[in-house]
Amino acid sequence: MTHSPTDPAPSLEDLSPEHPPHHRAKPVHWVATATAMAAVIAGAGLLQPDRATGATPATEAAGTPRATAPDAHAVTYPLDCKGAAQTVTATAQGDLDGDARPETVAAVRCDAGSGTPPHAIYVLAQEAAPGARPRVVATLLDPARRRTATELTVRDRTVTASLLGYSSPSVPRYSPDVKQLAKWRWTGGTFRQELTDSTAGRV
What we know:
Elements: E1 35-42, E2 86-94, E3 103-110, E4 120-125, E5 135-141, E6 148-155, E7 158-165, E8 178-187, E9 190-199
Antiparallel strand pairs: 1-9, 2-3, 3-4, 4-5, 6-7, 7-8, 8-9
């Protein structure tokens, strides 16, 4: 959503469930082409002025303790496990929006005990206030897409993961036959997703 120059810019925590943006983007459909670009999260920018001062956060001064990335295990995720536990299977940390405060990216799925439950991938941020808890501020991968996420990393403000999936409902859940490399980068108020097919046969 484009804001006029007079619109107040929402802060990072305004993307959280407690502070919903003006609208939320619908989940992006799975694209089967070799390479695809899609905007998966729309709304407010991550790079926003500091609430108290109105100034853009500056790089930490020499000698100032570095900000700590949010704890992925201290969050209840918006993932319906129908009574089962939620399991964080992978995390990666990095400053995605250039405010000198790292975010955490977490791959989460239900602990079903058997089978291969699909993953969701969430971005976590944390307010600077002492004692503040981390919050989910963006969903990069919706569990409805029925993908398994591996090799989760954050580098150069880009989230990267390998996604394993299925070409048809008849493919056994224990034998995914589609593998794609997914990249997400915050650009122009949107997480831009790039998908690239990396394997054409059984994984």
